[in-house]
Protein 1
Amino acid sequence: MERDKNFILGVYDDEDVLLEAITKVRTSGVKIHEVYSPFPVHGIDDVLGYKRSRLPIAAFLFGMLGTILALIMQFYMMKIDWPMIIGGKDYAAFPAFIPVTFELTVLLAAFGMVGVFMISSNLKPWGQPRIFDIRITDDKHVLAVDLATNASIGEKNIADLLKDSGATEVNKKSFE
Amino acid sequence: MQVTSSVREPLITGGKTLKDVTHDISRQVEGKPSIGWLLGLLVAVGALGLGFIALWLTLWEGIGMWGLNKTVGWAWDITNFVWWVGIGHAGTLISAVLLLFRQKWRMAINRAAEAMTIFAVICAAMFPIIHMGRPWLGAYWALPLPNTFGSLWVNFNSPLLWDVFAISTYFSVSLVFWYIGLIPDFATIRDRATGIRKAVYGALAFGWDGAAKTWSRYESVALILAGLATPLVLSVHTIVSFDFATSVIPGWHTTIFPPYFVAGAIFSGFAMVLTLMIVTRKLFKLEDYITIGHIELMNIVIIITGSIVGIAYITEFFIAWYSGVAAEQYAFMNRMFGPYWWAYWSMMTCNVISPQLFWFKKIRTSIVLTFILSLVVNIGMWFERFVIIVTSLHRDFLPSSWAMFYPTIYDVGVYLFTFGLFFTCFLLFAKFFPVINMAEVKSIIKSSSEKVNK
């Protein structure tokens, strides 16, 4: 069987049942493809074993870039390219450069991080997501198990496991 | 699971389930526009059209159409600018600062408040651009373009240039913050829709899939954006106040301006959020999501910031006397008892006395009184900016050049134009976008609604 094509889905109504179900499914050796929810469920990344997002690092690096570019720009324009005495201040009036430096730091940090988020989560206006169950943007949580990766366990056993863990429905879904 | 104390008032009333949330919020996006909404849009577009005549004539004939003179070179334009920017502070404050403080009541109001912020900042930014006289050349004066494009580099020592960076950063970061929050909700509408609506909301939803991994990243992004937006929102009105504070005009040259302006901005912003939300919750029947509890909490923010503003007025006055500088003392006496005494006392009544009424629980939990007082606060905050700007300028250093400022119909018309723009944008937003953040509200339905399904 090919991977990433045929899935068995456990549909859950309640987020706390879902969190316990994930632990149960994982401890019995079934690999979870992904869990889909209508809202962010707290603690779900811990039970799924997801590492903390590295997006804050991206934000920090882009912020640093903003600070550096802003300072280079202002020193170049005010001190090197066209020095002028303004209000009796030094050409490189460092304290006066802080507001613009701060704003550009925030601007680049925010846009850089959001850009990385968009790319890493594959968010784009022409994006066509694979919808496992249309209700996951409404009121249901869906736990998807790839049948090919868990071929050794067997479809029936997985379905029983999902039922036991509190799934209100167990469905099959195949993608072309 | 999340645990919420049983003594807390529920944030969502009416025993709503997840499905109800989806249904209640998507309803007005999917349904036909109501009569109330159409009438509102008609009035807003009418104001926009009427105001446009004034705007057009101002641009055609020049700034001489306004009531400015050589003594009072800044009046309604900058008053309106500061007023609109101030209103634009509540949205990001609610979504960023209250997120950092884990205040869950923000979830029902943050979407609309952020939309309000974005539209208010657009209205604000129009005034300095129009005041340039030839706004199509504005890019040369405001942006650091190479010398070959125009005259010289822009002056990075000037607070007016800091404003350009502050306002544009604030606008774009708020827009991104708002849009990231909208993506999951657009996906909800996409999955309920068919045909052309599905295509449009599908594109707006950016292919959102609701995976746990995506949600985890989404939450990181929201938290970091909140961390970035919190100092940003404080910096914006600080920098606006620098426009005045770094000058040498008596009445402007004070170190109290940054905190005082920020408090005033939050004060007026919350007042405008209340004005809009009271109407929106009624029009779209969202009483279960935006409860009296929400209104009361916003009124408490108004008491706090209103009191800070009141203390700032008194401190300013005391320092003017204590400084011993005759010009400074005169500027403040002239505010109170000069020809613009009525503006000063309107400001004092609306901003210092009226919010104190919210100490009474009956008043702060009354929708009608809250609505009236929110309008009063907005009027008061407009007068505050008028008083600071015009009364400090109109009697300057030489008595021979003392003058009065009287607005012309064009001053009023351009202000009307921004009102039309603001309400047109807000009404379109309220109809076509989900006005409440469905995903966030769903995440607290189990812990904070009346019906706890354990």
Protein 2
Amino acid sequence: MEQYVLPNSGHSSNPEASKLGMWLFLFTELLLFGGLFLVYMVYRALNPEAFLIASYELNITMGTINTVVLLTSSLTIAMSISALQKGKKGLALYLMLATIAFSLIFMVIKFFEWNAKIHHGLFPGMEHYQSLPHGESLFFFLYFFMTGLHALHVIIGAIFIGIVVVKVGTDEVTGDQGTLLENSGLYWHLVDIIWIYLFPLFYLIH
Amino acid sequence: MKAEEIQHITSFREHFGTWLALIILTVMTVTISVFGADLLSLTVVTALAIATTKAIVVGYYFMHLKYESRIYLLMVGVVMLLFIVFLVLTIFDYVFR
């Protein structure tokens, strides 16, 4: 079937150009989080003891489970691309839905973690937070800001994959025309990579 | 199908291998942190080395850099270099202020 694309319709029919554009966007995301990591690094170097004490407040078990959940979701989205390329549309759809399910599990665990911290009054602006030593309040500010921004990316990634699920269902995205699925996969892997750094920096360094 | 659209299909076995490597690295980093306090403390350097290994594995296999044209690897390299420049300049700023 011939496909016609108007010059200024904003849709590219060139898969290579779409992929290149996606990578360029991912680079801006990397530098956004990279800047935040620099902030973390500087404040950690200035307040080593406070960061150490504050990091004991975080739940390593929940953090580890969330790491495994995100790594496994990266596996399922990568497998869904292979499945679709092999013409196994049903399997690809199940794997994409599994990825969305893993993202929900991640968000539920994150909710309970945040809930516990907020219950202890550690959210920026709360009474207990105000009474913390300066270094510890910096740690919790960065914790909420960086994991919050990451969680926002998880939500956006899950919605992106949800849109691709619909398009695969209607055969708009297929094994030969699978750029949108591949791009959603790239975005999802980036979200995974950011968590790979957040996890040890906030939870593990004792 | 046009010639440039011929794509490499990664096998499920390779995906599972990648996943297993990532899980092993995660177990390593958690074990060092929780149980190995007297053996080898998880310093920033160890933690970042393991995290960077994981990020490279994700990028190379899951994000398909292994099979993409070299221009993608080059671009990733340039962005990493840019970040390292920011990092080093920030460190110099704080150390020699």
